[in-house]
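Could you show me just one protein sequence together with its fold in token form as a worked example?
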Amino acid sequence: MGNAKTMVIFEHPLNEKIRIWLRLEFLIKQLMYNKNFDANNALYFFHLLNEILEIIERNDIRADLIKSIEEQKQKLSIWLNVPGVDTPLLDDLLSKLNVLIQQLSLDPKMGYDLKDDRFITAIRKRLTIPGGCCSFDLPFFHLWLQHPQSFRENQINQWLDSFSTLFQAMSLCMQLIRQSSHFKTLLCTNRFYQNSQDDISLLRIKVPFDKRLYPQVSGNNNRFAIRFLPLEPTLDNDEQEESAEFEFELACC
């Protein structure tokens, strides 16, 4: 497929663990991007923070991360005996994984201390109420927002430090999962593709932007189906376009 084409990457989880991790990863990126805010957009940051805490409270993220890192270590250790492998790079990666396991073991709460933060708890209680964070509802929050940016940034960085180990472990685990498979160019007709493969957890799908199609995925870690749907369905020539061969790229991770 030509490099000149702009490709859109879609990702779809095939088990519950990866589904939760993708959502958490999305929230983490949004949180870090929006951590520098003013009084006019402050609530978005706290909505993101609240959703991250909700996921952590409802799922044993730490145990899943430790298990996944151990599995990655076993897979990577096999490569140490393969000729031509960049051993120093591999040793460095294994060292990072060992450090993360140790940090995760010593930090069982990972953000749970923010549950006991009176400031954050009071805001979280009002987030589900439409307009519930007005200045008369949360006068202490209104006062906090009047402080200098440097003061608020210091407080925000302290909150984010509670997630430091989680963010690092999540980032590295998702990186290793994505790198476990390469994209392959495939062809399908009727905008439909299906396949079976043992023990996959994540599909990564590249679609040419000019096709204006997005994938709808169903399946599990052994079998999946992809149907490509138009962003803006049209009646003109729709049947002819749907029956035509369609080229895309797929990585089964």
Remarks:
- The two ends are 21 Å apart (CA to CA).
- The domain at 16-67+107-177 is CATH 1.10.3900.10 (YacF-like).
- The chain is about 50% helix and 20% strand.
